[in-house]
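Batch 3, record 17
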Amino acid sequence: MLQSRTEVVADYALQTQVAPRRVLARQPLQALETLGQQITVRRGKEIYAEGALADHCYKIVSGSVRLVKLMADGHRQICEFLVAGDLLGFEDEDDRYFAAEAVSDCVLMRYSRRSVDTLITEDNAFARHMRHLTAKGLEGAYKRMVLLCHKTAQERVAWFLLELSERTANDNDCIQLPMTRGDIADYLGMVIETVSRTLTQLKESGVISMQSVNRIKLVDRDALEDARGDL
Amino acid sequence: MLQSRTEVVADYALQTQVAPRRVLARQPLQALETLGQQITVRRGKEIYAEGALADHCYKIVSGSVRLVKLMADGHRQICEFLVAGDLLGFEDEDDRYFAAEAVSDCVLMRYSRRSVDTLITEDNAFARHMRHLTAKGLEGAYKRMVLLCHKTAQERVAWFLLELSERTANDNDCIQLPMTRGDIADYLGMVIETVSRTLTQLKESGVISMQSVNRIKLVDRDALEDARGDL
DNA sequence: CGTAGTCTTGACCTAGCTCAATCATAGTGG
DNA sequence: CCACTATGATTGAGCTAGGTCAAGACTACG
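Prediction for the assembled complex:
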């Protein structure tokens, strides 16, 4: 299982290269390319800690990342999953509001906060692009808020699967889940058991099938979209 | 009651003038002052609609505003409450993701998107300040996410009351609720009845008292902070 | 005084949580 | 190659917080 989780990483990297929706976004980011150095982070390791000084920003080359907020009462909230191509830690704040952890083995580009700041003040297109990304991030957060307030377990899981299938290019409507059920639960505001039960329900109603525990085939995408409801 | 809701507006405006936490934020925004024109919006009226062209930005002079997302299934999500001093609609997007409505009668400063864009490219301090505000907004959204995922009705309402009391200066730990129970419910991901019940519970346990239906006194702030839990 | 909008309270019901047992899979060491 | 172990996933059996539905109560205002 660990093995398969690691393989996914390579997939993402490859697929993102050709995913058309990223091409547009790439242009203004070329200015970054020369500034960064490449680093790797092993599965489960922290990229940065909650409360740490925000001295670097990152771009995910391959692998996926979770943004984690840990509560005193032991609860864990996953604020966001990020995949290859996504930017990370560009919030304009002195210290991290949440931690970033590698869900699978990751290759990242790392940029110093200072050089990014300079780029933002000097390159208008880049600055505008960053503002746009932040706005999209905020929009996504509000969407999740609606999800967490008003949606049933089925709707949440359906939404999650569709979202993941859109964000990571995939062949034949087959998606790899690099994260555990626990991760999904903490992302969707549910418990592990409910995530598991909901997946089996979807499987039994023929909407999805599971080649392995973390390889899911979207058999009936229309039914899944119905199950998600509108957002 | 309508009367009292309207009175609050004037209070906010006055109090924000002297609230120390706003003073710092005001400096970089002075550049805006000359660009805007003042408008008023009556209680319940739309400032902008969901999906509308985002051609203006606003600053709240007095009154309060809700950001509303309406779902096809009839559910309504209030993404944010904004009070005097807050900025509104500065997201870098072509059309509005949610609608903005006046919770009470409002006085707003309105700026054309074009002039704000120019200011952002020309005034680095202003641009930085705007990035910082957006980052704070995102942080707030993630906090709400935690709230919606893991918190009980009591914790949500306690959090809401404390939040409101911090954001709107108030005398003697007394806060005015410009919004209805329905608004609060749609903000906290609950139903009207539960909001009402929770408020009575807090009242009966002596944590708060209610001078009128929308004027709440925080009798025991410590107990309220306990009820909120940590965030 | 009547009306309309808002708020409160009560009685019920259910989606999803908790607790607990079992199963599946990958990695390990002999 | 085969136990053995650890981690994760599934399934089952209750239980409860909060949602639903329905009936009143309060308040502002014409």
